[in-house]
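re the bet — no i am not wrong, look at it urself. input seq straight from the record:
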Amino acid sequence: MALFALVALLILGTGYLQSWNAALNILNMGLISAIMALGVNMQWGYAGLFNVGVMGFVALGGLGAVLVAMPPVGEAWSAGGLRVLFALGIGVGVIVGAIQLWRRMARGALRGLAMVVWLVAGFFVFRAVFDPAVAAIEAVNPAATGYLGGLGLPVLFGWPVGALLAAGAAWVIGKTALGLRSDYLAIATLGIAEIVIAVLKNEEWLTRGVKNVIGIPRPVPYEVYLQADPVFVERAAGFGLDPVTASTLYVKLLYAGLFAIVLIALIWLSQMALRSPWGRMMRAIRDNEVAAEAMGKDVKARHLQIFILGSAVCGLAGAMMITLDSQLTPASYQPLRFTFLVWVMVIVGGSGNNFGAVLGGFLIWFLWVQVEPFGAFLMELLTSGMAADSALRAHLLDSVAHMRLLTMGVILLLVLRFSPRGLIPER
């Protein structure tokens, strides 16, 4: 509790010393980061699965929110929407047909030749239908749309859809990669995450690519509507706030309430699962797979199960983050932010402990945000006695941006040296 109180004091101190807007920004992203850390903790802390493709599952969660919440682009659907769906159906049919050929034909050169002919022919048929449809869709007002859009449903429905998209991708990855050794699994998940991001950046008919999807509907009121509401303006004046500041704080508090509800529900479910026979079985598999297999446990099936669950939680966090930002920017998904940093959160907080993962999410995100301005202040102080044209002074001031990486590395080393099980160790 003392560590959580310390984090709360840090966020409150940010509100007092900087601004309450900054404090609430840290709080909201801390809540989302804590959910990401919970997802990774399920995979690593419960089952010992080394997934370094977190970024891909978070991005798929964001895609789920876009596909649900954005309004459909009728002209794009008329231009090529159904043809794209037909082409995707052809692609699935080619894959299913290839699997059936492989299973039904006897081993030998004939089976290999049949597979090559089938896949090559299927590829050309798929591209013949897919490419003209995509070109027609992306030609529809490319500056504003150029994609199919979504279903136009409330964005909150996009949160479970984002989790399901991530879970579906995890099932596909898990069926092929979970039989690999831990280091090979890490390489496979990292590579697949990069493939996911490449698809989001390049398939403009689906995500607008690097043009970004903006204006994603929100589950909370827009500030401009609150500022035009006389009742809200009067209440804000009662607190001594101007309408602009009050509306911004109110919206961020509503987001914080929504995110906190999800986080509390996930912690409760995670704790119940961890204390159940299922949780004890997962930890037994983590500690000694051979012994668990000898006791009749299906290790690969349980690994697949926890891999899907953890990825779904990461996808849920990704959908929540897109809702907070109101935009999908595929180019912003970087391994440093969405994989390395989340792993630091889990390791520092305490892998295998749900509350440790949550603590790590809040603490590391706070440091990630605040280290750079503090580093700028520190460098200004250290170089204040140097000449204005000093090359060393210029170099030190230019290095402020790297303070984040240095701080994360130092924290990680200190925790691994003095508290290798994290700030809140697994019990």
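see?? The chain has a mean pLDDT of 90. told u. also DSSP finds 18 helices and two strands in the chain. so pay up
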